[in-house]
Amino acid sequence: MPEDSRFNNPFGNASHRYYLTSELSQRINLIRHLIENSEQLLLVLAEKGGGKTALLNQLKRIAEKECQHWWIYTPDTSPALSSEVLLSSILNTFHVRQDGKPFPILQESLRNHIAATRYNGQIPVLFVDDAHQLPLATLQYLIELNMQGKPPTRMRVVLFCEPQITSILAAPEFEMVQNTLIHTLDVPVFSDIQVRDYLQFRLHDTRYANIHPFHSDIIKTIYEKSEGLAGKINMYAQQILRQFAEQRHDIHLPHTFAPESKLLWGLAIVLVLVGLSFLFYWKSIEENEISAPIIQPIVRTEVERIVVEEEEEEEEPSPIISNDIIKGADWLSVQDPNSYTLQILGTHELINLQNFTKKHSNITEFAMFKTIYRNKDWYVLVYGIYSTRSEAQVALKEMPAELKNIKPWIRSLASVQNLI
Question: How far apart are CA 316 and CA 288, in angstroms?
Answer without folding.
Answer: 42
